[in-house]
Design a protein that fits this description.
- With 211 residues, this protein is an alpha+beta fold.
- It has one domain: outer membrane lipoprotein receptor (LolB), chain A (Clam).
- 22% of the residues lie in helices and 46% in strands.
- The longest helix is centred in the first third of the chain and has 30 residues.
């Protein structure tokens, strides 16, 4: 009986802990209208032909402002910039001096960017994702977001929050089995960001590809 009671208590505690994930996501979307952070990203491709999985690491800065504006600046190992200005998504590869331009509405519906910057609340986010709290792992509270569009390249994304409710990680799995783990640090929310942060100017001489 004592062992059964212990199991029930543990299960109940786990349920409460898991539920905090959705609460943290809801609070983040409600209270974080703008912000900036440093990030590291590890992209791991699935094993192929018996070879072990390979991981590529990168890092940079991330800024966002709701609704629908963000900037990812990759500084290592290569310089790349991704900007969403509310209407257009811009991708700039500095090495190639090439810009890819596409309508933002078509590009961001069922993507992790919608979680970070596009939707203002859980109801809006639920239009594109099935959301549920996930077990605590690595000291973080997680939310599992599964896109309702099963034909897209995104298979699932987990959003991780620290005990204080701060956004800490994104764990992204695409339809090809590639996993991207993004960890955020030095997150500053409610920051006042100038409008120019989300303006993209095509560099001189750059090729522009419209999609």
């Amino acid at each position: 009986m004592k062992r059964l009671l212990t199991a029930v208590v543990i299960a109940a505690s786990a349920t409460v802990s898991w539920a905090d994930g959705l609460k943290s996501l809801e609070a983040f979307m409600k209270n974080s209208q703008a912000g900036r952070a440093e990030f590291t990203q590890a992209v791991t491709a699935p094993s192929k032909d018996g070879q072990p999985p390979r991981t590529k690491n990168s890092s940079g800065q991330f800024e966002f402002q709701r609704p629908g504006k963000f900037r990812f600046v990759y500084t290592k190992p290569f310089e790349q910039t991704i900007v969403a200005d509310g209407k257009t998504l811009w991708l700039y590869d500095a090495d190639l001096n090439q810009v890819t331009q596409r309508p933002q509405a078509q590009a961001l519906g069922s993507t992790p960017a919608a979680i970070l910057a596009s939707a203002n609340d859980l109801k809006a986010l639920s239009a594109d994702f099935d959301l549920q709290s996930a077990p605590e792992q690595d000291g973080l509270q997680w939310v599992q977001a599964s896109p309702k569009d099963k034909n897209g390249q995104l298979k699932s994304v987990r959003v991780g929050f620290a005990a204080d409710g701060q956004l800490s990680a994104l764990d992204i799995l695409d339809s090809f089995g590639q996993r991207s783990l993004i960890r955020f640090s030095q997150l500053q929310t409610q920051a006042s960001l100038p409008a120019s942060t989300f303006e993209f100017k095509v560099p001189a001489g750059a090729d522009v590809l419209k999609q």
